[in-house]
Amino acid sequence: MEGSRHRGGRSVTPPEDRVPLRQKVGLGAGGLAAFFGYAGVSTLAYPVYNMTLGVSAAAVGVALLVPRLWDAVSDPLMGRITDNAHTRWGRRRPFVMLGAPLMGLLFVAIWYAPPAWSDNAQLAWFIAAQLLFFTAYTVFAVPFGAMSYEMTPDHHERTRVMAFLAFFHKIGELLSGWMLPLAALLGVAIVGAAVVPAPGEQQRIPIEGVHAMAWIVGLVFLAGFGVLPALAVRGGSRAAPAAVAAAGPKVKLVEGLRAAAGNAAFLLLVGVIVLNTLSGVLATGIDQYLLVYYMSDGNQADGLVQKGLLTTGYGVVGFASIPLISWYATRFGKKQALYAVYGLMAVGGVAKWFVFTPGHPRVELFGLSLDPVILIDPLLCGPMWVAVKILLASMMADVCDEDELRHGQRREGLFGAVFSWLEKTVVSVAYLGTGLALAATGFEVAKGAAQSDATFTGMRLFLAGAPTATALLAIAVLRFYPLTAERADATRATLEARRGRG
């Protein structure tokens, strides 16, 4: 097999390397479950445990970080298990099928901390339920990520496969922004009437609505969509043939981690995802507080509607960006595409200072008062999230080929596990950073909209500064990334020749 053919100076994917549409869609549907798995908890943690139950923001941030200590053990261990598994259904599918329904049920349990309990008891429940949930998530997500890396051996077809994942990821992002408004509506429907706060108290989401919304997310998006990759995607692939994987030596945990730590291309991708996630999640956490307490005078319902509008904007821009980014990366290269979107994000970071401020003209639509100016934010920052989802995953698949070239083993599971743990850890650290940033600015949830001007100014500086700085740093890091399309094609040709001799 000669690998990608070239036409007009560009590599062209051979027909035999193309992944069938059914498998791309099935894999992409699993991306919806993966999104709600790692983002759903962090998205709901502060609104439910801080805004609704009244637990301190800093304590919630610490609680989000605790499960990452367990993940540091469970994720690489799961990577080793799935890399060494050889069943009649393949190395990945049985774990995906098992993990999806488990994490769906355990996601629901996270939000059932009794409101009458003390803050410490509620935190203990939150941490314990998270530990169980993220164990199930590891069983699902690590094999699922490895499955996506080994769908095809072609450098550019990998980008197209990841575009399907990005499409469903954007659906998840679009829907996740409406989880809290949905919880509020369901709560009103279940309770029977809107809960009117006493004078001086804030309007809070009925906890019954949170429970109902969690059941929908758990059963439909985590369990339901999560099992689809196991049904649609066959075990093994031309990128990681089952026979080659089975014939090779067993993957050893310490040896694999050492190899990952010594892989320069992998470490550079890790650096990019760390910068990207820290920036984005910090902004996501703080923008929600600004929308509620700064731009909506403490009205949770109004602020969360604005958050839903903002998330919808990110979803629409993301959908529109998927074909453009896939085309651009195929035409000019994955690294060049990342340069472009990070440059746009740096501009968007500066724009946040002017976007997230009150006083913009409002538009009345379906009885809702909407601030259209906030849609400038997704126009500038939205393409980056799609590009990262498509291109970093595609580049990770190239890194796995480089690893086999150097060490003679297929270790998608182990590399994916390290990557998954880092992503979850950075998300948790960023949300902890949100809590610490809120504390540093002097924010107190009990004050509602009556925060000082200095507090709101500090929050806006965090919101604007984080994406601007991290985008520029990501561009600097990417300059050293070594894997090009030509090098990927050469690596693949060497691997297939080696396998043929075996």
What is the gist of this entry?
By secondary structure, the protein is an all-alpha fold.
Count of domains: 1
> What is the name of the CATH class?
Mainly Alpha
The fourth-level CATH homologous superfamily is MFS general substrate transporter like domains
CATH architecture group name: Up-down Bundle
Strand content: under 5%
* Whole-angstrom Rg: 23 Å
Mean pLDDT: 82
Overall 3D form = globular
Organism: Phycisphaera mikurensis (strain NBRC 102666 / KCTC 22515 / FYK2301M01)
Family: Belongs to the sodium:galactoside symporter (TC 2.A.2) family.
Keywords: Membrane, Transmembrane, Transmembrane helix
GO biological process, one term: carbohydrate transport
Describe the structure.
It comes from Phycisphaera mikurensis (strain NBRC 102666 / KCTC 22515 / FYK2301M01). There is one protein chain. The chain has 502 residues and is mainly alpha-helical. It has a single domain, classed as Growth Hormone, Chain: A (Up-down Bundle). The protein contains 17 helices and four strands. The protein has helices at 21-52, 57-84, 93-110, 119-149, 155-176, 179-191, 207-226, 228-232, 242-247, 253-261, 264-294, 300-332, 334-355, 376-407, 412-440, 453-478, 485-501; strands at residues 5-7, 10-12, 363-365, 368-370. The strands form two sheets. The protein has a two-stranded antiparallel ribbon with strand order 1-2. Helix 1 packs antiparallel against helix 2 (57-84), helix 2 packs parallel to helix 4 (119-149) and helix 11 packs antiparallel against helix 12 (300-332). The radius of gyration is 23 Å and the shape is globular. The model is unreliable at 195-201 and 241-247 (pLDDT under 50).
